[in-house]
Amino acid sequence: MIDVPMPQLGESVAEGTVTKWVVREGDQVEREQVLLEVATDKADTEVRAPAAGRVVKIVAQEGQTIAKGGLLCQLDETATGGARPAAAPQAAAPQPAPAAPPSAQGSANAPLASPSVRKMAREHDVEIARVHGTGDQGRVTQGDVLRAAGTTDGGHGPHVPPVAVSQPTVIQPQAQTHAQPQAAPAQPAASSLELAAMLNTAGGFVPPIPGVGFGTYKVPPYVPKPGDQVVPFSRRRRITADHMVYSKQVSPHVATVAEVDLAATSRLRDQHKDVFKKEGVPLTFLTFISIATVRALREHPDMNARVLEGSYVKLRDVNLGVAVDTPGGLVVPSIKQADQLSLRGIASAIDDLAQRAKAGKVTADDLSGTSFSISNPGLKGNLFGAAIISQPNVGILRMGEIKKRPVVVTNGNDESIAIHPVMYLALSYDHRIIDGALANSFLWRVADILNRGEFEVR
To answer: What is the C-alpha to C-alpha distance for residues 160 and 219, in angstroms, rounded to an integer?
Structure first.
């Protein structure tokens, strides 16, 4: 008998949630065949069969959160024949299985919650079994615990529920056209704990609630009107929303912008892009900007850091995150030890990560460990924009559009006007540890390398 455990899904990932079983009990499977899909806060992953055999027992149910190493299912590698072959994903859910051990999800009657959420509930004297979960599959989040802790009866009383929709909804016209929808009654102003919960990213994202605001301001209630479409948050959109709100709350963002003349870099690219293309590696401006960035990070190590409680760490590895727009939303896989790679190595790594991200094949490790990020809005970009820092980094560089503009060219004592490709680079940085002088020096160096076209093509 072979036990199939929850795998290690990333260097910082301690658990995963079973989202879909592809096989059923009794199915015959081959080695490396997909058994189930699991999700973390970083990526979705397929769990494959370690050996051929028959699925004799499914332990973890869909929606259940299991700690790494926790049992998912069992295979009998000695069973051959007599069992139905596993086909495409089955519509029927697996049979109920025994509850996971307390380390994975708690008692059988308790709602889904991670160990960190259960610890927070104990610290706030909140009975987690009586907390309404707003996460996936009713999972209790840290925000839910904070809201429960803010009630007057020690967490056992009612709290304001979030707006929830399960599928896109189009508001239909009323039968009586003269009847107007009534606005929802105003709710009491939120307490500081409720507001903290709304902005808390460790738990699930809670959209604005009618009547809740800050101080004397209250968010106007939503009044449905014919033709409006209510679109539910996807899992990735909810995670992104959590991350962005958290980042804006904890990091005092400051932005600075540099103008970059790409004429020298563009000439260098034109000289080598065909050779790279024949090798199957696209040589993009993002490649050159990435090389310039990692060189500047090595010269300004405080930019390659993360903030701790009362201190900060200068990180040894330069792991460059590159934002990729995918059909499922934005993801930021990282190039590990990017400062150790050549121009060709960076170009190949960017292309590989982008292709796998768009195909949904990036792993949790691909999405973890980033120490600094670059955001590229693509061909349909704009002049420039200040991106939100990807936590726990202290900076992010956003590219603007590349446009031909008149520039002053100096040659000795002579000056002339020429038309060059120009781009604006915007650096957002965390003012808790990065001062303006350091940020400006870092951005100037990135621009200087690009202005000069100082690259070794290999």
So the answer is: 14
